[in-house]
Amino acid sequence: MKAKVDVVINSKVITLRSDENAEYLHKVALYVDQKIEDLKSKNLSAVVDERVRGLLIALNIADDYFKVKDRHTAADVTTKRLMQETTRLEKENASLSELVQKLQSDLTQVKTEFEEFLHNFDTPRDKKVLDAVDETEDDDLVLEEPTEKIIPMSLPMLSAVKAAN
Question: What's the structural domain count of the chain?
Fold first, then answer.
């Protein structure tokens, strides 16, 4: 149902009928009244007639409208771009989470293999190697007077040796 609302524009009371609420209509009327006052403050009434002043006011309001519309369009474009970036980052995050889980699993497997290797490292020769490893600060296994040839091995090589046995 259309409501009747009295508003003041350019010092004149105007009755409006609208489906909009009274507060909104007063806000719109105040905006138009302010545009009229802005034009009056420029002292154009002596230069241009009332019809031209009305057109200038309409142009000012249309200018405001298009500026807001352009900002809204730019905001929509930015929002769309940010949503796409969010989707891309969510996919990348999921991929990285999978990689972390795989690496954690691989680390657990390597730790298990290393512990098994150390557990099975019980021959007298093996104990000499462990003692030598404890004494050296290098990553290479070195005995000062080796009784047997000892080959430094990395963890992947350990897995290969274990698989061969």
Answer: 3
Which residues span the domain enclosing 13?
1-41
87 and 142 within one domain: no
pTM: 0.53
SS (H, E, C) the chain: CCEEEEEEECCEEEEEEECCCHHHHHHHHHHHHHHHHHHHCCCCCCCCCHHHHHHHHHHHHHHHHHHHHHHHHHHHHHHHHHHHHHHHHHHHHHHHHHHHHHHHHHHHHHHHHHHHHHHCCCCHHHHHHHHHHHHCCCCCCCCCCCCCCCCCCCHHHHHHHHHHC
Q: Are residues 52 and 108 in the same domain?
A: yes
The string of pLDDT tens digits covering residues 19-77 is 999 999 999 999 999 999 998 888 766 667 888 888 999 999 999 999 999 999 999 99
Average pLDDT, the chain: 82
